[in-house]
UniProtKB/TrEMBL annotation:
Family: Belongs to the FemABX family.
Entry-linked PANTHER family: LIPID II:GLYCINE GLYCYLTRANSFERASE
Keyword terms, alphabetized: Acyltransferase, Cell shape, Cell wall biogenesis/degradation, Peptidoglycan synthesis, Transferase
InterPro entries, per the entry: Acyl_CoA_acyltransferase (IPR016181), FEMABX (IPR003447), PG_Glycine_Bridge_Synth (IPR050644)
Species name: Oceanithermus desulfurans
Protein name: Lipid II:glycine glycyltransferase (Peptidoglycan interpeptide bridge formation enzyme)
Tree of life domain: Bacteria
């Protein structure tokens, strides 16, 4: 394999977007988003016989002093899964000096969710949500509605009858600032109720701006009732998928079912623009009513998608890998306890 660093958004997104196994988190824009929280992206494309067969937006970040990690969020993008060991070998060379290399390839494993073994890689907990629900958009509106649970279908139609209106707002449009403010207020309100942490305002502003990029799009789906914003989501679209990254809703006027209108409007936008998959982005690993996010799962499963698993792998690059991994897990447990009173992860 030949490894090349790609330094323009157009060229990078063309390579990543055309690989069969890909993700918006491997797009150029996502690297710019992560710069705001201290990550440095390096975009490496791998060629075999002159054709691109893999690409990894490799993020590096210092943990303490000279200690750093290397990570490909929902990546690398691949022509096919069997290439992962060879690609990991190339990326390990590029990440030399890091404690370890973490990969989360976009394999979307279906039940029974068994994680495939790859030479030179160890299964690991993921940084991105490990499980999600994917809705197939290719069959069109009627088929998508037919696959939904009857209650979800009913609530979508009820929201319209109650007078909820929903619209799509892209960056640069006249009402983009107003829509972003409404999204951020609802998102912050929801996180406060659920005792969840969130990034600074500038992070979400960068998502909205930077993910509007060559070969991709960002938008807010905003649902309102009598002029009042009740539900909003920040979405990104890339490589055939619409991804629901962040969202929130108000507890006011719950009976008008605004979140259903918000999602259905985003799905319809995706179908209109030729996207194949709607990723609801994050459901619990363990499906029990006691789970902090079980209600989220019940809501999302109603849209009729399939639950999939995105596996994680690590390749240790230093003898310090084990102790550092343990320390990072302890730190995450402490943050969870301080925030929600439990060491368990949300998902």
């Amino acid at each position: 394999m030949e490894r090349r660093e790609i330094d323009t958004p157009e060229a990078w997104n063309r390579i990543v977007g055309e690989l069969p196994l890909s993700s918006s988190l491997q797009s150029w824009g996502w690297g710019e988003v992560k710069r705001t929280s201290g990550w440095k992206p390096v975009r490496l494309a791998l060629f075999d016989g002159g054709e691109p067969v893999a690409a990894a937006q490799l993020m590096t970040r210092h943990l303490a002093g000279p200690l750093r990690l290397a990570y490909a969020p929902r990546g690398p993008a691949l022509a096919e899964a069997g290439l992962l060991p060879r690609v990991a070998e190339q990326l390990a060379r590029a990440a030399r000096g890091a404690l370890y290399l973490q990969l989360e390839p976009p394999l979307a494993l279906e039940e029974p969710y068994d994680v495939p073994a790859f030479a030179g890689l160890q299964p690991a907990a993921t940084i991105q949500p490990e499980y999600s629900i994917l809705v197939d958009l290719e069959a069109g509106e009627e088929a998508v509605l037919a696959r939904m649970k009857s209650k979800t279908r009913y609530n979508i139609r009820l929201s319209a009858r109650k007078g909820v209106t929903a619209r799509i707002v892209r960056p640069g449009e006249g009402d983009a600032e107003e829509a972003f403010e409404a999204f951020l207020a609802l998102f912050t309100e929801t996180n406060r109720r659920a005792k969840l942490l969130q990034h600074a305002r500038s992070y979400y502003e960068t998502v909205f701006r930077a993910m509007e990029q060559p070969g991709g799009a960002a938008f807010i789906s905003l649902a309102e009732y009598q002029g009042q914003p009740l539900a909003a989501g920040l979405f990104v679209a890339f490589a055939g998928r619409v991804d629901y990254l962040y969202g929130g809703s108000s507890r006011e006027h719950k009976n008008v079912m605004a979140p259903y209108a918000m999602h259905w409007t985003a799905m319809r936008w995706g179908m209109k623009h030729g996207y194949r998959v709607y990723d609801l982005w994050g459901v619990p690993r363990v499906l029990t009513p006691e789970s902090h996010a079980y209600g989220i799962y019940r809501f999302k499963e109603g849209f009729g998608g399939r639950r999939v698993r995105f596996p994680g792998y690590v390749r240790p690059l230093s003898p310090l890998f084990g102790p550092v991994q343990t320390a990072l897990r302890w730190r995450k447990n402490w943050v969870n306890w301080r925030t929600r009173g439990t060491p368990r992860d949300v998902l």
